[in-house]
Amino acid sequence: MSNSAGIVSAQRATFDTPLVFRSGAVLPSYELVYETYGTLNDAKSNAILICHALSGNHHVAGRYANDPENVGWWDNMVGPGKPVDTGKFFVIGLNNLGGCHGSTGPSSLNPETGQPYGTGFPVVTVEDWVESQARLADRLGIKQFAAVMGGSLGGMQALQWSLSFPERVRHVLVIAAAPHLTAENIAFNDVARNAILTDPDFHGGNFYQHGVVPTRGLRLARMLGHITYLSDDAMADKFGRSLRSGKLGYNYGIEFEIESYLRYQGDKFAAYFDANTYLLMTKALDYFDPARACDDNLDKAFADARADFLVVSFTTDWRFAPERSREIVSALLHNRRNVSYAEISSAHGHDSFLMQHEHYHNVMRVYLERIATEFSA
Amino acid sequence: MSNSAGIVSAQRATFDTPLVFRSGAVLPSYELVYETYGTLNDAKSNAILICHALSGNHHVAGRYANDPENVGWWDNMVGPGKPVDTGKFFVIGLNNLGGCHGSTGPSSLNPETGQPYGTGFPVVTVEDWVESQARLADRLGIKQFAAVMGGSLGGMQALQWSLSFPERVRHVLVIAAAPHLTAENIAFNDVARNAILTDPDFHGGNFYQHGVVPTRGLRLARMLGHITYLSDDAMADKFGRSLRSGKLGYNYGIEFEIESYLRYQGDKFAAYFDANTYLLMTKALDYFDPARACDDNLDKAFADARADFLVVSFTTDWRFAPERSREIVSALLHNRRNVSYAEISSAHGHDSFLMQHEHYHNVMRVYLERIATEFSA
């Protein structure tokens, strides 16, 4: 516990300047919930923004006084003496706009109607998130982040920072991400969305008013998600063909351990995650494609980037395979950016980015120690 | 059309000897629907049994007089002058027990109750199918097949023939199959099953009596299935990130071409396929594991096999990857079986086994020509 961020508490920022989304939709005002760890130095030059992935939130590290079991989702990465050393950095985690952990999202009350936004909440893009995050930076007086970082969809936000606000981010750390989703990635998202959209309890997104939750759809979406987060090998090692009861049941109950695991994960997720947020998050993933506006030329897309980059991928990640990270690296190199790239041998697939892994954490530590020398010097 | 099997018609065989399933369940009587192409020789030595995969049926080749658009699912493989040359071979296709294309299955009326079997239909294993197929062979007077062949789940049945009835099959052709499912394979099946099982229109399997069909679940199951039948590359080539309307819609309708394709496939499938059959088929896949009874030692499992084997895999098949076929080859070689193995370069993933592909079809043709010399000599 000595290297834990310790007891933390969430904060809240309200923004009353209307936010215009990529879709053209406008949100007159919104709130972002966030946490910070460490101390902002006088020059305000030691701030790191951590962007979360599909089901993440602002609780990145530490624990709550009234809920000590609830440890932050990246607590192994962020804390005193950890790779993202809160003894050196001022670290910010926030819940993305459209989320379901406190920031304004589909389950929030729309002040204009007094009802939850539901599917009336604007479809959010990675660009919109970065815009909303920049306002939080303004609020905290941070002109330039020492780093913006994240894994998966979080890595896409970090990338987008270097495009939307090239001068406001010194380093971008992109982990287990891709420059855009493939058709297969979109296909998985589409199946997950359809599971939710066709659940009779979804009620066109207005299930709140019906006092129900599209549990079936959320459960399926999460079960499917978990398959893509793990690797074939990791699943084989962890579950193989082990039977729950030791023998075949010849029925449709749980027979294999992997089934038990998936259903447990599905049930757990469906009990707390908002279905509309799930839809939004998968759409943001589908839409992210900085090259689209540049004739599908990723080199062109990064022409204005000014940051230095660390790109990290994992050998068994088949969702966003190392090849996808190398596309990013290649485009950055063609723009003469400083890029470090690490391809980490890990058995745990896409989920590797969340795990304790010595080589991976050392790569992160060394890179972040170098960043720390820039502002402490 | 000159090398088509031409106009064909289905036949029906009734079996009144009770069939005891692996599960212990008993079916007092059952019907199998089947088609044949070509002519059985006097020695009855030129018969080939073709086993179908998850959604296949008995209509392997040719077309129906009253439905000429309905061409058999493996028509590119089976016909006069085709790799499975119906000028030389007597070819049998059947709908598996538990199917929904005419053979007794969950949607058939249970003579004891006058109601559809529903989930009361026994859970079928690959071993049970082979047993039921052997009875059809008896009925047709076929003591030994020149070959039993199939792709995917059909390949597993072909393998099982060499174990259940070593003396009744001269050659076994195993295409795009595996000696058992991995945890990841089972996981995909489990998500598909759960989509059906939790569809409110499933009614515990007795939806027939309610006049509804669990369309939502079947649709999701099929969409998901299609992702695993294709390769990432094939999807990228065929659909990429193309948008249906040319621009983003920022809503939950169909935006990307891949979404359009998946939903079309899902809708088409849900309109004709029986949900209980889908469940049975996926369970048969999950259960298939000849090594289980032999301390998970596949070498031991094949100890009694007497056939010669052709094993074929496809480079981009990630559902049953080439490594899985090589496990089969290795176990057969350890038992000193004659094994030919071909790993075909194809971009089309698991679905490759159904496609017209010159190299693949040449491999099949050459192997089958060799078989033909055995009985014509």
Shape of chain A: globular
Spatial arrangement of strands, main beta sheet of chain A? 1-4-8-5-9-10-11-12
Strand composition percent of chain A: 15-25%
Largest interface: A-B, 58 and 58 residues
Give the helix/strand class of chain A.
Answer: alpha/beta
Structure notes:
The structure is a homodimer of 377-residue chains. Chain A has 377 residues and is of the alpha/beta class. Chain A has helices at 126-139, 153-164, 183-197, 207-210, 215-229, 232-238, 257-270, 275-287, 298-301, 322-334, 358-376; strands at residues 11-15, 19-20, 26-27, 30-37, 47-51, 78-79, 84-85, 90-94, 145-151, 169-175, 308-314, 339-344. In chain A, the strands form three sheets. The first copy, chain A, has an eight-stranded mixed beta sheet with strand order 1-4-8-5-9-10-11-12, sandwiched between helices. In chain A, strands 2-3 form a two-stranded antiparallel ribbon. In chain A, helix 1 (126-139) crosses helix 2 (153-164). Chain A starts with 10 loop residues before the first strand and ends with a helix. The mean pLDDT of chain A is 96. The interface between A and B is large, with 58 and 58 residues.
